[in-house]
From TrEMBL:
Any matching Pfam family: Por_Secre_tail
Gene3D superfamilies reported for this sequence: 2.60.40.2700
Signal peptide span: 1-20
Species of origin: Chryseobacterium oranimense
Keywords: Signal
Domain Secretion system C-terminal sorting: 247-318
Protein name as catalogued: Por secretion system C-terminal sorting domain-containing protein
Domain of life: Bacteria
Length: 320
């Protein structure tokens, strides 16, 4: 009899312990489709978050920030005390969500998830030219030496999928069959131009294929290829010139130096994460000034910079 009582006592304690354990998690149809802890909205549609069955519920939200740690407060959502919570892409993008639950004598919180979106960033284009092979003749216009090239890149390659590239300004986007401005067969996020024209693109977001954007005629770049006076520079001299900024140390855990002494000043430095979101920006940057990136989450980043002459550069660095 005594062993049986001991067994029942252990069983009762185990059952009580199981009852005391509550480990809520959040699920939803789009959670984890692109990133494991994010719901990505295409527009203003709704999404239903849910958790397991418990005794009571209280949902919370916290505003996103690029800073680490996130010091924005968690706030209880009024009336959000059921097993599910409906959020939408208009009001809830760039917020974190979690749920606190109780079950008997157990109280616990779920891991946080984020509501984000891939439709918020308008398209942008970066132009890259070899030093000594071009001159800026006006806003959005370049004279380029015959035999050289201009490389155009979508500034947010992770955001957009299929591209349509133009060599002249189209009459009306979206692209129409037979449009003479369309460069046929080119659908990637970059294009190398070797002929005169006005270049830009139309692209649809990769995650949201129905969400498409036109670069805008004001952001097209006009390129004039020819034997300009400045093209008399020898090929060897052009090759010796630096074709990109110095970015060091790379990788880095705290301080990052961007630029070269010959440029002195940069009008603007923008650091973007791999989804295209600007996480740090600085105006009037000097080449010998350190930029503190210690608050950035470890990973890969893109640096977009523009010097005092209007030349644009694109570089990458790794935050340790």
């Amino acid at each position: 009899m005594k062993p049986k009582l001991i067994f029942l006592a252990f069983l009762f304690m185990a059952l009580m312990n199981m009852k005391a354990q509550c480990n809520p998690t959040i699920t939803s149809p789009r959670l984890g489709l692109k990133y494991p802890d994010k719901v990505l909205f295409c527009n203003t549609e709704t999404e239903v978050l849910s958790t397991q069955a418990f005794g009571t519920y209280q949902w919370y939200k916290q505003e996103w920030t690029w800073q680490t740690p996130n010091n924005n407060p968690w706030t209880a959502i009024p009336g959000a005390t059921s097993q599910t919570l409906t959020i939408n892409g208009n009001d809830d993008q760039l917020y974190y969500f979690k749920v606190a639950v109780t079950q008997g004598d157990c109280t616990a919180e779920s891991p946080a998830i984020m509501a984000d979106g891939f439709a918020y960033a308008l398209p942008a284009m970066i132009s890259t030219m070899a030093p000594g092979t071009f001159e800026v003749v006006g806003a959005g216009e370049l004279n380029v030496c015959t035999g050289a090239s201009v490389k155009f890149d979508d500034a947010f390659p992770d955001l957009y999928g299929t591209h349509v590239w133009y060599r002249c300004i189209p009459s009306s986007p979206p692209p129409s069959p037979g449009d003479p401005c369309v460069i046929n067969g080119v659908t990637g996020d970059s294009y190398v131009a070797t002929e005169s024209g006005e270049y830009g693109f139309y692209a649809c977001t990769e995650y949201c294929p129905d969400q498409c954007e036109f670069l805008g005629t004001g952001n097209f770049v006009k390129v004039n290829f020819g034997s300009w006076e400045f093209c008399s520079l020898g090929t060897d001299e052009v090759k010796r010139k630096e074709n990109s900024l110095k970015v060091y140390p790379n990788p880095t855990a705290q301080f990052l130096y961007i630029g070269k002494e010959s440029d002195k000043m940069y009008k603007e430095i923008s650091i973007l994460d791999m989804s295209g979101k600007v996480v740090l920006q600085k105006k009037d940057h000097r080449f010998n000034e350190a930029i503190d990136v210690s608050r950035l989450v470890p990973g890969n980043y893109i640096i977009l910079s523009k010097d005092s002459e209007g030349k644009s550069y694109k570089n990458k660095f790794i935050k340790k």
